[in-house]
Amino acid sequence: MIKLKNHHNYVAFFLTLGCNLNCSYCINLHNSGSRYKQAKRKEFSYKDWIEAANKLELRDDLPLSLQGGEPTLLKGFNIFAKEVKPEIKMDLLTNMMFDVDKFISEVPTQRFTRDAPYASIRVSYHPGQNDIEDLIYKTQKMENAGFRVGLFGIELPDEKLNKHIFEVRDRCLNLGIDFRTKEFLGEFNGKIYGTFKYDGSVMGSKLKSCKCKTTELLVDPNGYVFKCHSDLYNGRDPYANILDDDFSTDLIDIYRDCNYYGDCNPCDVKVKTNRFQQYGHTSVDIIDIKDI
Ligand code: SF4
Ligand code: SF4
C-alpha cells in the first residue's frame, strides 16, 4: 500500500496530457514533448489506474486529484471513477467538454463529494475555447444530480481582458453557481506575474543546479512519478513508477539533484494556500542553489 503522510499535500494522477481544447497559454505539452514522443511509452489504461488508485491510503482531507491535459479523455474514465475502492475521494480538474449525462448515469456522486472549502469538480473556463453557456448548463445539470461543481477563470494582469471574466463571474454568482478567479502566473507582456518563493526559479535567466524535495505525489500518464510539475510535463527524470512493488512514500521525502532550477513551473514554487486554506505554502523545498 502507498500510505500518504501528514505533510504530503497533494496527490495527482495526470491521466492524459492530451486535451480537446487548444489554449494558447497552456503549460502542458499535450504529449508532444520530445521525451514523450521518443520514448513512446505505453500509457496506463483505466485498469492500470484502478490498480494504482487502489494502492493508495489517503487521509480524509486528501483527495486523489485527476488532472491532465483533460483527464476525462482517458478511455474508460467513468469506469475508473466508479470502480476504484470506495474510500478514495477524488477531485476532478476539467474543461467539462465531456458528456455530462453519461457521467451522471455512470459515476457515483459519493466519489466527488467531501467536506472541503471548494468544489471537488473544478471546471476551468477558457474564453474562446469552451463556451460559458454550455458550462452553465452542464454545471446546473451536474449540481441537480448531486455533484458539487465550481467554475474557475484566470484573472489576467489586464483590466480590459478581465472585464469579461468578471462579468461572467457576476452572472454565475447571481445564478447560484460557484465561480472563482485564479491569479495569473507566468509571463504577460514581458513581465513575470506571481509570488514565487525562490528568485529566478520561474523563467530564470539561466539554469542552475540545486537539491529539491517535494510534498506531492505526481504521476504521469505512464505511471511514472516525478518530483515536480516541470519534470512531469517535460518527461524529465522520473524517480519511480507508481506500480513498482517497492514504491513507498518515503521516496517522496528525498532531496534530489536538479539541474533545471530556472525552469521551475509556477505550480511548484508559488507561495500559495495549502489544503487547510492557509497561505504561505510552497510545494517544493529547494536548497544548495548553485551556478552550473
Ligand atoms: S483546457 Fe487546459 S489542458 Fe486543455 S489546452 Fe486549455 S489549458 Fe491546456
Ligand atoms: S528546482 Fe524546479 S525544476 Fe528542479 S525539481 Fe525543483 S521545482 Fe522542479
What's this model, at a glance?
The protein is of the alpha/beta class. It is 23% helix and 26% strand.
Note the overall shape: globular
What structural category characterises the helix and strand content?
alpha/beta
**According to CATH, what is the class?**
Alpha Beta
Query: What does the radius of gyration come to?
Result: 19 Å
Instruction: Name the helix and strand elements from N-terminus to C-terminus, one letter apiece.
Output: EEHHEEHEHEHEHEEEEEEHEEHEEE
Q: What's the CATH H-level homologous superfamily?
A: Aldolase class I
Which residue ranges are poorly predicted, with pLDDT under 50 across at least 5 consecutive positions? none
Number of strands: 18
Bound molecules: iron/sulfur cluster
Bin the helical content: 10-25%
From the structure provided, what is the oligomeric state, counting identical versus distinct chains?
A: single chain
How large is the share of residues in beta strands? 25-35%
From the 3D structure, determine the CATH topology: TIM Barrel
Q: What is the averaged pLDDT score?
A: 92
Distance between the termini: 39 Å
Provide a count of the helices. 8
Keywords:
292 residues; TIM Barrel; three-stranded antiparallel beta sheet; 26% strand; globular
Plain-language structure description:
The protein is of the alpha/beta class. The chain has helices spanning 34-39, 46-54, 77-83, 100-106, 132-144, 159-174, 229-234, 266-269; strands at 2-3, 10-14, 56-57, 64-67, 90-94, 121-124, 149-155, 178-183, 186-188, 191-193, 208-214, 216-219, 224-226, 240-241, 256-261, 272-273, 279-281, 284-291. The strands form 5 sheets. The chain has a 9-stranded mixed sheet. It has a 3-stranded antiparallel sheet with strand order 15-11-18, with no helix packed on it. Strands 1-3 form a two-stranded parallel sheet. It starts with a strand and ends with a strand. Helices cover 23% and strands 26% of the residues. The mean pLDDT is 92. The protein is globular and about 55 Å long. It binds iron/sulfur cluster (2 copies). The site of one iron/sulfur cluster has 15 residues, from strand 11, helix 7, strand 15 and strand 18.
